[in-house]
Every structure is written in C-alpha cells, then in structure tokens.
Amino acid sequence: MGGPDATQHPTYKEVCKGDTKQVEVFDLEFDGDDTTYENLVKHFFMFHDPTTLHRQEEDVGFQYSSIIYVYDEKQVRAFLRSTLIP
Fold first, then answer.
1. What are the structural domain ranges in the chain?
2. What is the three-state SS of 25-81?
3. What is the pLDDT of residues 30-67, one digit of tens each?
C-alpha cells in the first residue's frame, strides 16, 4: 500500500527491494470467537516496535513502516485501550 507517488501494482519482490514507496500490509479476518481485536493489537505490539522508524526486527526499509488500519469506531476504541492511550 502506498501513496500517490508510489509504484502502482508492484510485485512482492519489488516492494521488498524498498524503492517502490509501498509498505507491506495484510488484511486479517477473524470472527471474534477465539480472540478479540484488542488482544490482536496487544499481540501485534509484542513483536512490533513502533518507535523504530522503518524497521521491524532485522528488516529495515520504508516497506516496514508501522501502521494499523481500523474498520470502525469499535476497533479505534479497542486499539486505544490496548495501547493505553487515554
């Protein structure tokens, strides 16, 4: 996913090279029976450090930028609760 100046419809290999101005994203569908959105966000932050710019573990580059998308206000509130943002 990228902005207006990003390469349009790049391949995964192109994104991995880091010069497309795209970031790696995925859309996770869940039914809420086994876990909650809030628990998913907490789990995400167990392995993801949003304080390091364009880096996740040993992977470095713009394509590893930190972002969480939400679909509704319920997910916004769950995100804020799980990250302790008042």
1. 12-82
2. CCCCCCCCCCCCHHHHHHHHHHHCCCCCCCEECCEECHHHCCCCCCCCHHHHHHHHH
3. 777 667 888 888 888 877 777 777 777 777 777 777 77
